[in-house]
């Protein structure tokens, strides 16, 4: 018996190692390219480990003053700022508006509750390109083109339903008896929600926060079409330009890619222990 | 509870649904209706739209590039979705085994999900580029010869699906949550009955996982139908339109050809396709999805 368990463990470790290799190797390659010099990256045959490690690319992208790309530095920093502002505002607003709406959907009975939930799925199904021209017209009529507000509004239109959906099933799993007890003690519905339901749904909130942040942080399609100036361009757009406009600058693109992946990675790392428990208790049970 | 009192309390929450409803009407229903109208018009976004009836829709049948993009997308949906979801299930089963140190692995595997798609595509260009790319160098190392991954019609789609698989950590997370939700008592009962690991998987794990599978399949179907970033940046639709996805084609019809009416017609056909497949999946789910209890979980959409 004991021997078979050991064998099983070895097998699992081996498979897990293969997966880590599959998962990590591509990302490591991105990091390695960002640390390479241009000359080393272009030599043949391929160098498995770059002979010269340099942080110049990071310096160039963050502080400018490198000849490799015209004005990569200034573009990247403003895009980084835009991405942060947009993602944080969208996440905060979506969570604030979403959790209360989710609670209303999970607990209160009112007409139109079921169709309201179905619309969340509908929003996902319409291809963004179907909406882009009408949205474009609305944004230019409201003089919001090339301005962070247009992206914030558009992102909210799909992040908010997503937050409502996840939080609704999470809240529905919290036994109603818990708040009923508080209600008998004379708590109002709103107070019962704020003092009892909200604290015990923190792990669900943490998981939802990460998903909402990543959705807006990584969004590419609307950003590509709604931003043409530095005042509103987000990271994915600027990084893409490194690889297309300036003659396929892979080094700048990978450097930008590494930096762009850091906020979600740090966020996930920070909330790590909440993510799985948050999803286990709610989210997608049917 | 008195009616007035209940209304007073519920009002606070209905107030918080209002922003969503208003946003939904202004930024979703409104634009959707406008776009539906434009799909029956000749419209270039500069001059006034001209009503042409269903011409945009009938034109689709004879548009060879469109039909190829449709076929490519159906390939992605009918091959990409099962492969990706199967991979995710295997991955989550593996990560669900309780052995020392498995937590580290659980943290690592969703790293790709956090990498922006734009950066992921760059990784894939470095990995699968023609000539001395990483994958080719490995093949040469083991005595093979260079493969033109991006330039061969039959290879580009699997390469793109491998991106979808790589970055699917989010769904693995959901599967892991699903696995954690299976009551331990079921496994103990199975062990007492002498059921082996394979039978336990098919009789307990898989049926209990079906709600999660349904959810993930619907999400992946939508993802593959709307595939844009990866195909657009990796291979720009080539070679010979082999990686031209539906969304990409519609995007080019809009912003390259400025044929917005036609593009809207295409996007509504895409929506209908997604809608029909989703409805089929949801309807058929009554037969293959196992729900514990009647409405546990509350999410009965």
List the topology elements:
The complex is a heterodimer of chains A (286) and B (301).
Chain A: H1 2-34, H2 38-42, H3 56-63, H4 72-107, H5 113-125, H6 128-141, H7 148-172, H8 176-184, H9 189-200, H10 202-218, H11 221-226, H12 235-244, H13 250-280
Helix pairs in contact in A: 1-13, 3-4, 4-7, 4-10, 4-12, 5-7, 7-10, 8-9, 10-13, 12-13
Chain B: H1 3-38, E1 41-42, E2 50-51, H2 55-60, H3 64-96, H4 102-108, H5 111-114, H6 117-128, H7 134-141, H8 153-166, H9 169-180, H10 184-192, H11 197-225, H12 229-234, H13 246-255, H14 260-288
Antiparallel strand pairs in B: 1-2
| Main β sheet profile of chain B | 2 strands, antiparallel
Biggest sheet descriptor of chain A? none
Distance from first to last alpha carbon of chain A: 38 Å
The sequence of SSEs of chain A as H and E is: HHHHHHHHHHHHH
Class inferred from helices and paired strands of chain B:
mainly alpha
SS field, number of helical segments of chain A: 13
Strands of chain A, total number = 0
Tell me the strand percentage band of chain B.
under 5%
Q: How is the quaternary structure best described?
A: heterodimer
The CATH architecture of the largest domain in chain B is Orthogonal Bundle
Cα separation of the termini of chain B: 28 Å
Counted up, domains of chain B total 2
Adjacency order of strands in the biggest sheet of chain B? 1-2
Beta-strand content estimate of chain A = under 5%
Identify the most extensive interface between protein chains: A-B, 101 and 100 residues
Low-confidence stretches of chain A: none
Shape of chain B: globular
CATH superfamily of the largest domain in chain B: MetI-like
Q: Roughly what is the average pLDDT of chain A, rounded to an integer? A: 80
- Say how many strands of chain B there are: 2
How would you describe this protein?
Chain A is mostly helical and 286 residues long. Chain A has one domain (67-280): MetI-like (MetI-like fold, Orthogonal Bundle). In chain A, 77% of the residues lie in helices and 0% in strands. In chain A, α4 (72-107) crosses α12, α10 (202-218) packs antiparallel against α13 and α12 (235-244) runs antiparallel to α13. The radius of gyration of chain A is 23 Å and the shape is globular. Helices cover 71% and strands 1% of the residues of chain B. The longest helix of chain B has 36 residues, at 3-38. Chain B has helices spanning 3-38, 55-60, 64-96, 102-108, 111-114, 117-128, 134-141, 153-166, 169-180, 184-192, 197-225, 229-234, 246-255, 260-288; strands spanning 41-42, 50-51. With 301 residues, chain B is mostly helical. Chain B has two domains: 1-36, no CATH class; 63-288, MetI-like (MetI-like fold), CATH 1.10.3720. The model of chain B is unreliable at 293-301 (pLDDT under 50). Chain B is globular. In chain B, α3 (64-96) packs across α9 (169-180), α11 runs antiparallel to α14 (260-288) and α13 (246-255) packs antiparallel against α14. At the A-B interface, α1, α4, α5, α6 and α7 of A face α1, α3, α4, α5 and α6 of B.
């Amino acid at each position: 018996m004991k021997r078979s368990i050991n064998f099983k463990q070895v097998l699992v470790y081996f498979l897990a190692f293969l997966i880590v290799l599959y998962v990590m190797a591509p990302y490591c390659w991105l990091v390695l390219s960002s640390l390479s010099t241009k000359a080393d990256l272009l030599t043949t045959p391929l160098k498995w480990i770059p002979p010269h490690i340099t942080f110049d690319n990071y310096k160039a992208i963050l502080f400018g003053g490198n000849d490799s790309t015209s004005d990569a530095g200034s573009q990247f920093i403003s895009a980084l700022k835009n991405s942060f502002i947009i993602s944080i505002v969208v996440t905060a607003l979506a969570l604030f508006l979403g959790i209360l709406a989710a609670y209303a959907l999970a607990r209160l009975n009112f007409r139109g509750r079921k169709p309201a939930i179905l619309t969340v799925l509908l929003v996902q199904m319409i291809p963004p390109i179907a909406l882009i021209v009408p949205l474009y017209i609305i944004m230019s009529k409201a003089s919001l083109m090339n301005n962070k507000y247009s992206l914030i509004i558009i992102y909210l239109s799909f992040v908010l339903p997503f937050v409502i959906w996840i939080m609704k099933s999470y809240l529905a799993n919290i036994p109603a008896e818990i708040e009923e007890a508080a209600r008998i003690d004379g708590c109002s519905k709103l107070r019962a929600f704020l003092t009892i339901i909200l604290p015990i749904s923190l792990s669900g909130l943490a998981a939802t926060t990460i998903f909402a942040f990543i959705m807006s942080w990584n969004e590419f399609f609307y950003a590509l079409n709604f931003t043409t100036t530095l005042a509103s361009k987000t990271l994915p757009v600027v990084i893409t330009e490194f690889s297309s406009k300036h003659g396929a600058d892979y080094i700048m693109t990978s450097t930008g890619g590494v930096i762009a992946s850091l906020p979600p990675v740090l966020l996930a790392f920070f909330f790590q222990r909440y993510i799985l428990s948050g999803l286990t208790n709610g989210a997608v049970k049917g | 509870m008195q009616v007035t009192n209940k209304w007073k309390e519920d009002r606070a929450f209905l107030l918080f649904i209002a922003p969503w409803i208003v946003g939904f009407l202004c930024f979703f229903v409104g634009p959707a209706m406008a776009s539906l109208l434009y799909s029956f018009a000749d419209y270039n976004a500069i001059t006034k739209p001209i009503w042409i009836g269903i011409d945009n829709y009938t034109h689709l049948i004879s548009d060879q590039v469109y039909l190829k993009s449709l076929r490519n997308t159906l390939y992605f949906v009918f091959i990409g979705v099962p492969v990706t979801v199967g991979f995710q299930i295997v991955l989550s089963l593996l990560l669900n085994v309780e052995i020392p140190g498995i937590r580290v692995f659980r943290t690592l595997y969703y790293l790709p999900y956090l990498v922006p798609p734009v950066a992921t595509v760059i990784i894939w260009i470095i990995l699968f580029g023609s000539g001395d790319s990483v994958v080719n160098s490995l093949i040469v190392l083991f005595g093979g010869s260079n493969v033109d991954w991006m330039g061969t019609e039959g290879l580009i789609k699997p390469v793109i699906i491998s991106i979808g698989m790589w970055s699917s950590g989010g769904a693995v997370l959901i599967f892991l949550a699903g696995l954690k939700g299976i009551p331990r008592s079921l496994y103990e009962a199975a062990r007492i009955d002498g059921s082996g690991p394979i039978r336990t998987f098919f009789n307990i794990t898989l049926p209990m996982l079906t709600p999660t599978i349904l959810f993930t399949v619907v999400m992946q179907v939508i993802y593959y139908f709307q595939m844009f970033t990866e195909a657009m940046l990796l291979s720009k639709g080539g070679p010979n339109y082999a990686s031209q996805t539906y969304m990409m084609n519609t995007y080019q019809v809009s912003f390259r050809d400025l044929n917005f009416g036609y593009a809207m017609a295409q996007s509504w056909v895409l929506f209908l396709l997604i809608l029909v497949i989703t409805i089929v999946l949801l309807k058929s789910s009554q037969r293959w999805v196992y729900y514990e209890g009647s409405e546990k979980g509350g999410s009965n959409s």
